[in-house]
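Hey all, quick one. A colleague (J.T.) asked me to put the 6-O-phosphoryl inosine monophosphate job into the tracker so the inputs and the structure tokens live in one place instead of scattered across chat threads. No bug as far as I know, just bookkeeping. Sequence used:
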Amino acid sequence: MPVVALIGAQWGDEGKGHLVDLLASKARLVVRYGGGNNAGHTVVNHLGTFKLHLVPSGIFDPATVNVIGPGVVINPEVLLGEIKELEERGISTAKLFISERAHVIMPYHIMLDQLQEDSRGESKIGTTGRGIGPAYADKMSRTGIRIADLLHEETLLTRLRVVLEEKNRVLTRIYNAKPLSLHDTYLRYLDLGHQLSEHITNVHPIIHRAVEKDLPVLLEGAQGALLDVDHGTYPYVTSSPPGAAGACQGAGVGPTQLNSVVGVLKAYTTRVGEGPFPSEIEGPEAAVLRQIGTPWAEIGTTTGRLRRVGWFDAVMARYAAQINGIDTLAITKLDVLDTLPSIKICTAYRLHETQPEYPPATVAVLSQVEPIYEEMPGWQTPTTGVRRFQDLPDAAQAYVARLCQLVGARLGIVSVGPGRDQTIIVSEVL
Ligand code: GDP
Ligand code: IMO
Ligand code: MG
């Protein structure tokens, strides 16, 4: 299966980084296709524990080429910091390539993200404050600065002069914030572009040649299907399309070239930030899911916020599978459920006298749905050491099988711990 998109199928943090690291040795090319440093992908392997925000999680395999695609928004300072840390820890970034078409997150994007959130008050989105929304908005408004612009003095100065004039008006007149200096911003971003220059290229030939030669290519998702700007729980979403269509668009491959879409799902559900979450829970069962005190505790990788937790929501997961054409599932964090005597699955929603088959579009309505639960027995046995599906306790096998049945896709991988080897390959995904 040469071109495979691996996408989050919930509200992010499903364990995408972990699985991309596992699959990277089979892939000749890993392409991060969207989002920015709102993402936090944790990789735990023989080289240590790493939290990646922009660098693709295939970076640990020395033979794999890693690309940051045109659909990503890049904070150059964050990326340089990540490259430096990897190099200091002995990981080569020589085969890391950055698309010259990717957009740059500028200081005013970060300021505006935070100022807009403050001004939203009660209805804040709970963004990561990394400038993602304003950067994508500028891209669509055609006022963005692209990575290629950082390598071209005249273009950068001309574009920045126009853009900064408007941004400074907004910053000073609407938000009473300090304006940014054209001179300083220009010199700073010229220097950042210079520092990244050895990695910057036209990535199209790299991707196109791999696809043409039928080499295994993995498209690494960030965020999750329910944070999709079109299909997610709008306005409590991110500003990009994190799904399979976004993978094609953000990497520059055609939909006909995609051979499989792997949806990564936690065996339960989490969400960071605001927005509706029908199967959310509190109390002692929530504490079990949160796993506070472990390295895989439900605490945001990027912002350190406590993640909200809840039972597996099959209505949302099935919807995510439908809008993305997910054919294969990777179920992660099954081990987190190891101690529970029984486990709930939200199989339907109740809304007044009806049972909507799909998530209602508006927050006001979605916030009113009541989850209808099915309960399955727990297995109360550790699964972290299991490496074959048939060696999982019967109740765990039944639980995973039920999730696949409800979502409507085949099972590819089950993950029972954060380590690279703590995975059960049920069917080959790449
Ligand atoms: P991503 O954003 O989708 O890459 O996911 P994150 O890295 O933000 O969050 C997933 C967290 O769960 C990380 O701490 C991972 O190390 C951890 N993790 C991934 N898979 C498993 C698993 O199967 N079991 C356990 N216990 N932890 C896991
Ligand atoms: P990974 O790739 C979880 C959430 C934020 C917020 C909303 C909008 O690690 O799965 P933004 O800064 O994008 O404008 O915030 O989206 N969000 C994520 N939640 N994992 C992520 O990425 C996320 N990226 C954005 O918490 O609710
Ligand atoms: Mg994450």
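Adding what we noticed when we looked at it: The first strand starts at residue 3 and ends at 8. The pocket of guanosine-5'-diphosphate (ligand 1) is lined by residues 8, 12-18, 39-42, 44, 296, 301, 332-333, 335-336, 415-418 (CB under 6 Å).
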